[in-house]
Q: What sequence folds into this?
């Protein structure tokens, strides 16, 4: 993150890390440590599936947790995650998120700024 808070490659402004926790939750952690549950993950006939608590977003048939996170990130690319952190309740459960072991992906989201 630059001192302006922008991702220099894309001018997107919201940095988060999304995780699949050991108990099958899709979580997002804001740079300040705020943790929210974006949705839940479960096995399906073709791999993994997820259902987000955001605008009915879901994914099916994903072969790995890493691919699931990539799919979640792609679907949230134009969403203002700051608004989600305000709308979704903070996660207070006991889903330990281990940065070394649990699948995770750092993401930049939010509307792109006009670069004209």
A:
């Amino acid at each position: 993150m630059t001192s302006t808070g922008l991702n220099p490659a894309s001018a997107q402004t919201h940095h988060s890390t999304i995780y699949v926790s050991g108990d099958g939750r899709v979580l997002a952690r804001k740079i300040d440590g705020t943790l929210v549950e974006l949705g839940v993950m479960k096995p399906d006939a073709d791999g993994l599936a997820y259902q987000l608590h955001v605008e009915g977003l879901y994914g099916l048939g994903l072969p790995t947790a890493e691919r699931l996170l990539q799919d979640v990130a792609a679907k949230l690319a134009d969403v203002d995650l700051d608004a989600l952190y305000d709308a979704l309740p903070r996660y207070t459960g006991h889903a330990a998120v281990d940065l070394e072991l649990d699948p995770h992906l750092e993401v930049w989201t939010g509307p792109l700024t006009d670069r004209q």
Remarks:
- The mean pLDDT is 78.
- Strands lie at 14-20, 25-30, 35-44, 47-52, 58-62, 104-109.
- Residues 15-103 form one domain.
- Residues 21 and 97 are 6 Å apart (CA to CA).
